[in-house]
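input
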Amino acid sequence: MSKVHNFSAGPAILPQEVIDNCAKALLNFEGTNLSLIEVSHRGKEFVAVMEQARSLVKKIMNLDDAYEIIYLQGGASSQFLMVAMNLLEVKAAYTNTGTWSTKAIKEATSLGNVEVLGSSESKNFNFIPKDYSISSDYDYFHCTSNNTIFGTQMQSFPSSDVPVVCDMSSDIFSRELDFTKFDLIYAGAQKNMGPAGTTLVVIKKSLLGKVTRKIPTMLDYTTHISKDSMFNTPSVFAVYGCYETLKWIDKQGLAEIEQKNTAKADLLYGEIDSNEMFEGTAAKEDRSKMNATFILKDESRNDDFLRACNDANINGIKGHRSVGGFRASMYNALEIDSVQVLVDVMRNFK
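output
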């Protein structure tokens, strides 16, 4: 069977060994002769998986016991509200760098005062705003590290005297970072971490218990921390997929993963910049290593290029309607050979 080169923005490509191990667990989970999706989440076999999926996050991020790791449902979109529900007392600071931060701001505004310190909306989010400062009277500062739709990524993070909250849904575990600089990180699993269905939250315990509002039980981080992510039935398959992916990440280390991701991005952006038929849509200094967005200068040829990609077994290359053109998502599990196939198509198209 011909290999498909999966550039889908998400749910996205997973390592083959993760898929193989998940398939085995679906047939016979940990020697129980039961499928992973029919065992009790309270059984010792799955409890062990949840514990390891939580501890691996701390290991990879090099975090101590000041942090808690929880797996929730509702996607990163539920965290737009949950963050504000648990942390926003007086006012919070946000940067607006795309669709998802816009939605996060909307949810937080329903609970309190939100100040947008920087926004790239006026230029269709094609850059990361940097000319702002964060005063010490905010409850927290919120940013989105990578923007899948517009192809931008924060290459550095601002210094702050207030807690830093980051939506890392689309570039988590893709590079080395000092994760202790963040007080809360959340990420939907379906990019670099596993199949869709669960959401990772990494939170510093000292952050909680400071708002005066009554928080609904299911929206209270302390509820899920106290029950080790088992307050209600977790997304068993999705958590298991994260566990297998985290093992794969841990074997390589973030330094090696970052090196591979840089090589893939350099290869593709090099072609975009040197091929006069194409043009990148994001500011060069803010280009995402996860999601490269580009257009054909002659848009009348778009369908021709998509057919050429399809003939080369390239999947998921069409751009989001907000930007148009094309988007190549190069998450951790995508091999550089697939990027080379896309580059070859672009060269041949020229």
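quick obs: The chain has a mean pLDDT of 97.
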